[in-house]
């Protein structure tokens, strides 16, 4: 992304530092897949409210939001996912602003789900299996507060469930380090630009390439085995 440097990949993986704008430009030329353009940064909507229709919302930050949509989209009971920005104070943040780290927002994913089909606790399990929660203010090759991992709870019940879930994974010891994921109240969610939405569907080759080069898949495989992402 625009002003970030890349984190060192987990031991045993190979990755070259790159920001996402450079990644997009180089990948388009290298792979000859000009399926999207990096459009002018502009958010199209106001902050999201309740989803309505008997659905509930959950909001997670796990670094690059491209990498968070697919794992939740394939969960039965999840009706919609939206990439966006949460946790900052600037209204109508743009990708350019957020990636520069000037708004306080984190790249985030809003998950709208039917609680009759899938529980919030089950969504938390999906979340923990997509990130490295021992990293502070970064995820894999993306560094900065805008790439922090976080659970943005919408009510008291979600807060209690998130804390309980964190404690469970701490006790399991699977992450080999203290969990640094923030658990904080949601402060408004702004949709990201359209070219970020459903990125894994629009650009499957670039999506897989980015995940691999950033070290995310290698880390998740080392902790959970293959097939969790």
Automatic annotation (TrEMBL):
Pfam families: PMSR. One of its GO terms (molecular function) is peptide-methionine (S)-S-oxide reductase activity. The keyword Cell membrane does not apply. It comes from the Eukaryota. Keywords: Oxidoreductase. Residues 58-207 form the Peptide methionine sulphoxide reductase MsrA domain. Gene3D superfamilies: Peptide methionine sulphoxide reductase MsrA (3.30.1060.10). InterPro entries: Met_Sox_Rdtase_MsrA_dom (IPR002569), Met_Sox_Rdtase_MsrA_sf (IPR036509). It is an enzyme of class 1 (oxidoreductase). Its EC number is 1.8.4.11. PANTHER family: PEPTIDE METHIONINE SULFOXIDE REDUCTASE, PEPTIDE METHIONINE SULFOXIDE REDUCTASE MSRA 2. Belongs to the MsrA Met sulfoxide reductase family. This is peptide-methionine (S)-S-oxide reductase. It comes from Picocystis salinarum. The lineage of its organism: Eukaryota, Viridiplantae, Chlorophyta, Picocystophyceae, Picocystales.
